[in-house]
Amino acid sequence: MNALRLFPADVELTFRMKHGDPRTMGPAPRRRAAFGYFTPDDIYEALVAGYVQEGTAWIDVGGGRDVFPSNPRLARVLAQRCRTLIGIDPSETIDENPFVHERVKLPIEDYRAPQRFDLATLRMVAEHFERPEAAVASLSRLVRPGGAVVVYTVNRWAPVPLATALVPFRLHHAFKRLLWSTEEKDTFPVAYMMNTRARLLELFRAGGFRERHFRYLDDCRTFHQFRILNCIELAFWRVLSALGVHYPETCLLGVYERLAAPTAS
Fold first, then answer.
1. CA distance to 158, 165, 166, 220, per residue, from 238 (Å)
2. Can you list the domains of the chain with their CATH numbers?
3. Neighbour tally for 52: CB within 10 Å
4. Cα separation, 191 vs 259, whole angstroms
5. pTM for this one?
């Protein structure tokens, strides 16, 4: 699989690895399959799978207790395929991660490594960085020239992030538990300081990277636990897709290649 040319067949492969045969999978993934819809997680996982090869040195930033929360089978396959997989997260949840080869309980800004990495992944963590310039500077130090940083995060201007920015943090877990059945220990304060394409581009250019790939990922998971509401959002998504318009709720997926020397922003 070419990591920068992600085809529907690649995403279909990771989808089937996650959910199995469409005839026997659970109702929510079967519903999505019927609409021809893949989640942002599906697309992110397929993209990362294309980057992880034998010999890859990989650092997963802020992943906590999972590499792919919705696809442990693929996480296990890729962890066995790569040369090394370091998980770094200041949260206690990193101790529960069964996939990484080494656990580092530190912020990325404070981490020093004896090696450089071919790949760094940031899955749903960029929205939490309060010092984004320092985080990107650390990635610049840790990723070898020609290596890649894959950032998968929420869109600052999508409806759900806009709503959470207005809701006191003490209520965030109740909101997430209602919609996605998350645990309280997986809810962290958000800063949204690197959650637009323009801001990511600015930060990574200043850190010596270039944007190799970017896309907005339509996110129709807000009501995935409620069949009728989910069918409505999927039907709305399909109409918008036919018109060439993105669904209102989107995530960001960007790939940034480390250059040999920093470039002017």
1. 18, 28, 29, 10
2. 8-258 (3.40.50.150)
3. 21
4. 28
5. 0.88
